[in-house]
């Protein structure tokens, strides 16, 4: 049996006996077995297994390739532009280190605009900057603010009005959600051999 996702969240199942359409949400299949007995036929079961094992995207998602590492990942069907896998994705509010300067930033937004298309206030694209030549122009731009520039009001960090900068995704290194002062401690990066 070969399972292929359709654009409308359903799946085509090709078998030696015929080709059927499975709808996981409706728990339906177009095969005679399902039509006659309303049984949970083997096609429905097969689609569920393939989704669970990550071989086909779940309903509402589509396959995409991570712009940083090239690994296959699933993203919402409506998402356009360059995409990132779970390992390279950024979530607003998480800390990241700039690989060029070592500065610690807080991510404000993960865009789906390419670095060679995203224009800064200076009217240049992010990819145009000399500090970004080693990062892919096809990568999505991550917007982030320098931690030093953040001001806390009543103990809550206010991201409104904070100056944000755009970076190619792989220029920033994720630091997780730990406190930036802890995360910014010297790392044990391997020495050149
Ligand atoms: Zn069936
Ligand atoms: Zn990746």
From TrEMBL:
<dbReference type="Pfam" id="PF04434">
    <property type="entry name" value="SWIM"/>
</dbReference>
<dbReference type="InterPro" id="IPR007527">
    <property type="entry name" value="Znf_SWIM"/>
</dbReference>
<dbReference type="GO" id="GO:0008270">
    <property type="term" value="F:zinc ion binding"/>
</dbReference>
<protein>
    <submittedName>
        <fullName>SWIM zinc finger</fullName>
    </submittedName>
</protein>
<keyword id="KW-0862">Zinc</keyword>
<keyword id="KW-0479">Metal-binding</keyword>
<feature type="domain" description="SWIM-type">
    <location>
        <begin position="20"/>
        <end position="52"/>
    </location>
</feature>
<keyword id="KW-0863">Zinc-finger</keyword>
